[in-house]
Amino acid sequence: MLRIAVFGSGRGSNFHAILAALQQGRIPNAQICLVISNNSSAGILEIARANSLPAIHLSQQLFPTESAYGDALIALLRQQGVNFIALAGYMKRLPSRVVGLFPDRIVNIHPALLPKFGGKGMYGHHVHEAVIRSGERLSGATVHIVDEEYDHGAVVLQRTVDVSPDDTPETLAAKVLRIEHELYPEAIRLFAEGRYHR
Ligand code: GRF
Degrees (nearest 5) of the Cα angle 121, 150, 71? Predict the structure, then answer.
């Protein structure tokens, strides 16, 4: 059984898509047992609470040291029996101790075709602006394994969208987001069915 913790900082539409897939039986042998946000007013926490899921505001700023924050986070993950982590619009870096505890069991979704248009500073509208500026004909979404570097780990699944000459960063973001909502549940399903292998 995949016991999933979802981390997010914002509106939570990918989390919502994952939840819907679970509720509709499209991801077998998996459940969400914890939702964590560094932002107390994040939509992702509201969605979790509306679905009676444990929703916790946890930020490093609430702790005197990074190590105390790491301890609290790890205790919470253990307490809920978490064995898989999905980052969905999470704007913070996970403590490296947490990354080390879940090898190949932490995934993230990125709104471009990695390894292009990833790394530090490549988030939100910056990604889509860079894609359009570069004249790329294709963009898309990538689910990848999380390691110590931003947007760096092995690719789990990727899907493309066409970039039209009249696309703006906003229209491209909307196209990519639609794809993300299909891709993320599919990627988690691979892990739930034990079908992801490096
Ligand atoms: C998505 O575009 C995702 O690719 C990126 O952050 C955004 C999160 O959106 N990492 P949401 O909070 O899931 O709606």
Answer: 115
Classify residue 32 by its DSSP letter: E
Element (H, E) at 57: strand 55-57
Identify the structural domains of the chain with CATH numbers, from first to last: 2-192 (3.40.50.170)
Segment 42-70, tens digit of pLDDT: 999 999 999 999 999 999 999 999 999 99
Residue 117 is given by DSSP the state: T
Report the nearest-CA residue for atom 8 of ligand 1.
89
Which active-site residues does the annotation give?
110
Residue 120 is given by DSSP the state T
110 in ligand 1 pocket by Cβ < 6 Å? yes
pTM: 0.97
Radius of gyration, CA atoms only, the chain: 16
86-138 confidence digits (pLDDT tens): 999 999 999 999 999 999 999 999 999 999 999 989 999 999 999 999 999 99
Distance, CA of 31 to CA of 25 (rounded, Å):
11
**How far does residue 185's CA lie from ligand 1's centre (Å)?**
14
Indicate which residue's Cα is closest to atom 9 of ligand 1.
89
